[in-house]
Write a structure and sequence with these properties.
Shape: extended
Number of strands: 0
Order of helices and strands: HHH
Number of helices: 3
CATH topology of one domain: Flavocytochrome C3, Chain A, domain 2
Strand content: under 5%
CATH superfamily of one domain: Flavocytochrome C3, Chain A
Structural class: mainly alpha
Largest sheet: none
Helix content: 10-25%
Length: about 150
């Protein structure tokens, strides 16, 4: 029994390495990982202020505008200057979800809870680029065509 456990433990790293090298598409293409490559140019972000539909329930909405230069620190959150409850009337921006005011115990607070304060932990800007790897994701409402 010990010999079998030892064999499996010695074999596992080799299998993991073989899976990492073969079969799965790599983000760098066919270039070996030891070869230096020039970084691709950063694509322009989509900043048309059009609200995008969500792909699944509870998906955080994407950011439909530029956030270049936004300060998001422990003391400052530029997002809240438009999306906070008291500013949406004047800004026309959607108000942040009521879930952002709830603490871990479900208590509703007067201000954004610290665990939801850093917006870009969940919300991201979008770029019009091709996927790096193929995706077969399908929305639950998309008919299953076989």
């Amino acid at each position: 029994m010990r010999a079998l456990v030892l064999f499996v433990l010695l074999l596992m790293p080799g299998l993991a390495l073989a899976q990492a090298i073969g079969g799965q598409p790599r983000l760098s293409g066919n270039v070996p990982p030891t070869v230096a490559m020039k970084a691709p140019t950063v694509p322009a972000m989509i900043a048309d202020d059009v609200r995008r539909p969500r792909n699944y329930p509870e998906q955080p909405p994407v950011i439909p505008h530029s956030i270049d230069g936004y300060q998001l620190t422990l003391n400052t959150n530029r997002c809240l200057t438009c999306h906070a409850r008291q500013f949406v009337q004047g800004s026309g921006a959607p108000m942040i979800s009521v879930t952002h005011f709830m603490d871990r115990d479900g208590q509703v607070l007067a201000d954004v809870t610290p665990r939801r304060y850093f917006c870009t932990a969940c919300h991201v800007t979008q770029a019009d680029v091709q996927p790096l790897v193929p995706s077969t994701f399908r929305d639950a409402l998309t008919p299953n065509e076989r």
